[in-house]
Design brief:
1 helix; about 300 residues; 5-stranded antiparallel beta sheet
Length: about 300
């Protein structure tokens, strides 16, 4: 919320979009394709309760050989799943206990879901180290925007910042040898791909040229592939004895790649193929549904205490 008189800004909801106040005393907003509502005091200009949502996103496992689907989550809003290096577990974001924090569960659907982090801000996993000991994730802050954090998966499990500046840094991925992170940042005025050692050194190398995001390492670690609009680019790299990068080269162009910095593509583990999700055909709108008296339903689901 921002005052038109003083210009003062106040953060109401982390990770929300398209906020609307309704006369029932609620703030409505969107997040991850769902509609949320939270009690809101119009006099104090403050959120006064906890949110609820309608239908949720869930995590599914698709067996491409057997053409089967297994649902892995059943509670809350669940998104951004990634595989752990051992291929036995996944890490994902969920708001089942409030904010979008990090959770893990077995990929075969057995066992329980374990919470990995507790934070008041939104978090999303991006990569697991090859030895399964370290997790890279994006954390959103009202002061520093998108930052890259690391979470040890053994011992105390205390998260620590890896790249935290006033710019946006996210999409971090471990190199196959576990010594480097490739990520994207807009510190130059546009998104570019960078590489930085895990050791703690602040030295970094710019990989992309003329824009780039969504970096992926080749299986052997000798190449970094990234997206630049509709173009898929590749850069040859060497990680030992020191890091060295070559010139970007064009692999191919695909119109479905250019989709607002969201990754709808990946590289198969053998490094031989790309998988790209193409949007379905748009259908002409033939019907509009109008919901009547939904304010009463909203009051019952999200009491304001009045």
């Amino acid at each position: 919320m921002q005052s038109l008189i003083t210009g003062e800004r106040r953060l109401l909801v982390e990770g929300g979009a398209c906020g609307r106040y309704v006369p029932t005393g609620h703030l409505l907003y969107g997040r991850a394709n769902s509609l949320y509502a939270v009690p809101f005091d119009i006099n104090r200009l403050a959120v006064t309760g906890t949110e609820i949502s309608g239908a949720n996103n869930e995590i599914w496992l698709v067996d491409m050989e057997r053409d089967t689907q297994t649902r892995l989550t059943f509670d809350g809003e669940n998104s951004w799943p990634i595989w752990m290096a051992d291929g036995k577990n996944i890490v994902f974001s969920s708001d089942r206990q409030g904010q979008l924090n990090l959770y893990t569960t077995s990929a075969d659907g057995s066992g329980t879901i374990e919470k990995l982090t507790t934070s008041e801000v939104m978090q999303a996993p991006t990569s697991c180290s090859p030895d399964n000991r370290l997790l890279a994730f994006t954390q959103m802050s009202s002061k520093t925007s998108f930052d890259i954090w690391l979470l040890p998966l053994e011992g105390e499990r205390k998260p620590r910042p890896f790249r935290q500046t006033t710019f946006e840094e996210f999409g971090a991925r471990f190199s196959p040898d576990g010594r480097w992170l490739a990520y994207q940042s807009n510190e130059s005025g546009r998104l570019e791909v960078y590489v930085q050692p895990i050791s703690g050194s602040s030295t970094k190398w710019q990989i992309s040229a003329k824009g780039g995001d969504s970096p992926h390492w080749s299986r052997a670690g000798r190449e970094i592939v990234y997206r630049n609009g509709t173009k898929m680019m590749a850069v040859e790299v060497a990680t030992a004895p020191t890091f060295k990068a070559g010139r970007p080269k064009l692999l191919f162009e695909e119109k479905y790649l250019n989709r607002n910095y969201i990754e709808y593509w990946d590289i198969t583990p053998d490094g031989e193929r790309f998988a790209i999700i193409r949007p379905g055909e748009r259908q002409r709108l033939t019907r509009i549904n109008v919901v009547l008296n939904w304010f009463e339903e909203l009051k019952n689901k999200v009491p304001t205490g009045k």
